[in-house]
Amino acid sequence: MAMLLNRRSFLSKTVKAGTALTLGGTLLHLSACSNEDIKRPIFNLVKDPDGICDLPAGFRYTIISRHGEIMSDGHSVPDYHDGMGCFSGPSGEIVLVRNHEIPTYFPSDPPSQEPRFAYDPDASGGTTTIWLNDKMEVLKHHLSLTGTIRNCSGGKTPWNSWISCEEPGTGLGSAWEMGKRHGYNFEVNPFSALEKVRPLKAMGRFNHEGVAIDPATSIAYQTEDRMEGCFYRFLPNVKGRFEEGGVLQGLRFVDRDIIHTSGFPLVAGKPYACEWVTVEEPDPEEDTVADQAQAQGAAVFVRGEGMVYDRGSIYFACTSGGQQGMGQIFKYTPDEAGGHIELVFEAKEQGVLEKPDNITLNQWGDLVICEDNGYDTQCLVGLTPEGKLYYIASNTQSEWSGACFSPDGRTLFANIHKDPGMTLAIQGPWEQLRAAA
Question: What gap in Å lies between CA 37 and CA 29, rounded to an integer?
Answer without folding.
Answer: 13
